[in-house]
Specification:
The protein has three helices and two strands, in the order H-E-E-H-H. By secondary structure, the chain is mainly alpha-helical.
Length: about 90
Amino acid sequence: MLEWMAWTPITAVFFIVIASILAFMTVLERIKPTVPRQGVMQISTTRGERLFIALLATGWINILWIAFTDFNQWGALALGLTVSALIMARG
C-alpha cells in the first residue's frame, strides 16, 4: 500500500514532528485560546495562522536552498527554524 513512498527514518521523524506540533497547538488552544494580533507582517493573525505561515516559509526556504546552493541541507534547516521562530514570536 505505501510502497510508492520512500519511508526512511528521517521521513518518519519529519511527520512525527509535524503531528506533534499540531497536537501541541491543539492542546494550547484548548488551554489558552488565541487572540488575533497584528505583528511585523502587518496583518492580523492567530497562533495557528502564524504556524501555517512559518511552515510554508520553512518549506520554501528548503526548496530554494536546494535549487540555488550546493551547501549542506542543515543550513536550510537552521535558517528555516530561525525564520519560523521569528514569525511565531513577532509575526
